[in-house]
Design goal:
homodimer; Rossmann fold; six-stranded mixed β-sheet; 14 helices; about 40% helix; Ser/Thr_Dehydratase (chains A, B)
Chain lengths: ~400, ~400
């Protein structure tokens, strides 16, 4: 076989690489399949230990042949931060948070677009379009800017305005859509041929899943070539879950790791929870119900728009991964997310609403006994809180001129 | 000698470590002095090559004895991104930008506060205060949150509101000051004894310079244990310049590097330029004058508040470093900064106004012939553009429902 080709995740049919149609005839999603014997020649624990801390350290497991096609802005090898205080509080063996907000575009989306835009460059493409709830748009805009490719981004209008504003800053043609992400996707499909756009939407091309896969490779390496017991991940389109699952299968096939696969937990927002609903339908209720919602008064609550994907491109594949891994899915409320943002802030971590949702899910799963004292758990913080900020809160912060003013304010 | 002590940067007097008074009797600044013979036992190029990519890989050159005192959120080892297109455009040998915005608090300030708060933890301190133009306040807030130390931050009211808002998110007592950073500093000095605050302002304690020093250590290691010819750095209080200078001296003393020191360029904002003015006064005009200012219409221009330090705590030391290194200082306008933000954006880089100021300075220095074709140049991007955003710009982005709407908008 070639160094890599496409293979259907459902029927295992094999095909050469192509853009724009990642669905197999059988309806399954086509993913990249590597010649692992070839990979194993240079991809060893010893060689990896000496490589530069970037997601491109895993280049044998990425679909770019020529290093000159790599479009990099400094993505990957993000910190894995341990939270020992909370291990005791929640009776967990280990608790970590993966700080994906430290990627170049301030979100985990950097990874997928580094690979997707490298593939575009490799293929000589000049225009790319994406429907996005925000961070994917800004990542396409940045990487396309770096590569000299024209980017067109279509964003539902409820997306936080700072993330929207990043896209023209990176030089992308930026449009707000009065509708959901699938409405934005429909607009791209309508114009694709006429405009010459490559659609780099979720599961529309093979690069983004491969880029997200590096989260799994990196996590395993950072943990000393082992898996955690549980991964709690905010899930919209689900390419991160698919990518990490694929990473772990590849590491097992390469003989790097022999332990059980982690239990995957998909976290969604109450009211937009196709994975939670799908799991209940498929297995008669294996998702964890969530009853811990608390009122937060009239605080301004940011929206977890990254999880707002009513129709994931391959729900069947996602459900199968969650089930195979003995994982679950859980929906959390906006109020729980706001509380969780505060808890993570007190630990020194600026979290996106989606990242905070994993914290809220962890509390609920701990409360229900789904998480066990023998569990090592990894949460994913996908972006910074500030990207989602609604300004105006600093209006409540006092303004002083002297230390006496400070004392006065302290007394109030 | 002990593993480390304080030493005056002016008269070389040596003193044991103490908080709160970093000025020597002679008026010089006290900096940390290490027993380099002791350091050299374990600090080798070979041992470093295998260490974890964090600024704490340089622990022998940081003033924390016990690893359990390290307060870390995943700081350092930020990407050094090469910009080959601009090397040709500007006739430079090499051009890199150091992406300090990828630190845990979204700015280079993470480094200094990781060490400063570790020292507080080591000393058993419970309360710390800082006067700050923004990112230092948010970094103290985050690291203090992680360490369980109470933070009090005093911020001039022209600071971007998103950065202000981060501080209460991390749990800090947050106050806006109607004045400059030295007014905020005066308030802390008034209340310090009564409140039991450790003042962690610039050059008030030894940790922040030592943390900033890791930018220099890291840069040298990322360049294969060599120095660039020129470092262009946005300069407010100047602890980054002092820290990097110190790093390079230590590396030379350890025998790691034998080449010339880099020429340091301090970048300031027109109208708040004590280093530029000081250099002109001291040497009769070695700063580079800047005539490239361009109008930018009625665009909303963010403020480079991080450079607004009218009275740097040790101007004499800063000037001496710039002069010894054959460097210079240059002031750029808000309009040049806005243009530079756009240029960096087109390269896929989200830059703070201070980071963009280094780009503007590079263009001016290239234009004047101060930068030469044999020069390798490093710029520092200190934070993300979004932290400084003034919302409302997305109002100009079109809202559509269909592909026909998109075509209509394209025609306008």
């Amino acid at each position: 076989m070639k160094q890599w080709e496409l293979q259907c995740s459902r029927c295992s049919a094999k095909l050469p690489f192509r853009y724009q149609d990642m669905k197999c005839k059988c309806g399954g999603t086509l993913l990249v399949n590597y010649d692992l014997e070839h990979v194993a020649q240079t991809f060893t624990k010893t060689s990896l230990a000496l490589r530069y801390p970037s997601m491109w350290r895993y280049h044998e497991l990425l679909p770019i042949h020529d290093p000159s096609h790599i479009v990099s802005l400094g993505e990957g090898w993000t910190p894995l931060l341990r939270l020992p205080d909370w291990e005791s509080k929640l009776s967990l063996k280990r608790l970590w948070i993966k700080r994906e907000e430290q990627n170049p575009t301030g979100s985990f989306k950097s990874r997928g677009f580094s690979v997707a835009v490298s593939l575009l460059k490799q293929a000589g493409a000049t225009k790319a379009a994406v429907p996005s709830n925000g961070n994917a748009a800004s990542a396409l805009a940045a990487y396309a800017g770096r590569a000299g490719i024209q980017a067109f981004v279509f964003i539902p209008m409820d997306c936080p305005s700072l993330i929207v504003d990043e896209c023209p800053m990176y030089g992308a043609t930026t449009v707000l859509v009065d509708g959901f992400i699938h409405d934005a996707a429909a607009i791209i499909e309508s114009g694709r041929t006429e405009q010459g756009w490559v659609n780099v939407g979720t599961l529309k091309e093979p690069g983004r899943v491969e880029g997200k896969k590096t989260m799994g490779l990196e996590l395993a390496e950072q943990l000393g070539w082992t898996f955690p017991n549980v991964i709690i991940y905010p899930t919209g389109g689900g390419s991160g879950i698919i990518g990490m699952w694929k990473a772990f299968l590849e590491l097992k096939a390469l003989g790097f790791i022999d332990c059980d696969m982690p239990r995957f937990v998909c976290v969604q927002e109450e009211g937009c929870q196709p994975i939670v609903d799908g799991l209940n339908k498929s297995l008669g209720g294996t998702s964890v119900s969530n009853t811990a919602s608390l009122p937060v008064g009239d605080r301004i609550i940011p929206n977890p728009t990254g999880m707002r994907v009513p129709n994931p491109p391959d729900l069947e594949l996602l459900l199968s991964i969650v089930e195979q891994s003995s994982g679950t899915a859980i929906a959390v409320s906006k109020e729980q997310i706001a509380q969780a943002t505060h808890s993570l802030g007190s630990e020194g971590i600026s979290s996106s609403p989606e990242g905070a949702a994993t914290w809220a899910a962890m509390l609920a799963l701990s409360d229900k006994g789904w998480l066990r004292p023998t569990d090592s758990v990894v949460l994913f913080n996908t972006s910074h809180a500030m990207k989602y900020a609604k300004l105006g809160t600093s209006a409540a912060i006092p303004i002083i001129r002297t230390y006496d003013d400070f004392m006065l304010y302290q007394d109030i």
